[in-house]
Amino acid sequence: DLYTYCDYYFGFGNEQINVQKGMVCPNKVPIGSLKLDFMLDRYQNYNKKENFDIVFLASYEENDTPYIKVKTYEKIINNLCSFKKNHPNLSVYYSDKKRDNLSRKYRLMIDQLNSSGIVCSSKKIDNSYEAILCSEVVLFYRTTIGLEALAMDKVVLNLNYDNDMFPMSQKDCYSVLKNSSYVEFENRLLSL
Fold it and tell me: Using CB atoms within 10 A as the burial measure, which of 30, 59, 86, 105 is most buried?
């Protein structure tokens, strides 16, 4: 089953990987928890409350971590905003977890997204799973839910600008974009 198979290659975090004796492969990736089986059952008969052409699954951090690079994330946000400005007919949703303490830096990013015409919140969408189901194309940088979107039969594009997302390809291909240029971003999105 998908959940067990993913646990062999992915772990909730480095500490969790260390205690998963017998389920460790070389270079196991700490990526968080996969809730796909539960979520698929829950949303099997989901009725779309909204429709978006594109959803970006956020993985925002204030500072660099071993998995999130702030400069890379900023490049993705800039590309996304430019794309929306250049294609106002396409609807774009920024899906992020609920945050209590919004930093100034985060609020500025949300303002940038909003001023580009990107929807950053909706009372009709409760979580990233619903955002995926309401969208045609799913973009992600570093979040396991991007992999779950594949299993939900969505068109998915991993923005692997750092060339670090495993097991996604380290080469440009249909579902992976390594080149961070806006032209490449735009061309790939329009081809999906």
Answer: 59
Q: Which of 136, 125, 184 is nearest to 159 (CA)?
A: 184
CA distance 73 to 37: 29
- Tens-digit pLDDT profile for residues 76-121: 999 999 999 999 999 999 999 877 778 999 999 999 999 999 999 8
DSSP string, 142-162: S-HHHHHHHHTT-EEEEE-TT
What is the pLDDT, as a whole number, of residue 42? 65
Helix axes 2-9, 144-151, angle to 10 degrees: 150
- Confidence (pTM): 0.77
Among 95, 192, 92, smallest CA distance to 143 is for 95
Residues contacting 157, CB < 8 A, separation 6+: 137, 138, 139, 140, 175, 176, 177, 188, 189, 192
Specify the pLDDT at position 90: 98
**Long-range contacts, 154-161 (Cβ 8 Å, 24+):** 155/192, 157/188, 157/189, 157/192, 159/76, 159/185, 161/72, 161/75, 161/76
Q: Whose structure tokens read 């979107």?
A: 149
Q: What Rg do the C-alpha atoms of the chain give, in angstroms?
A: 16
Residue pair 134/144 in contact (Cβ under 8 Å)? The answer is no
Q: How many residues does the chain have?
A: 192
Best CA proximity match to 147, nearest among 129, 126, 171: 129
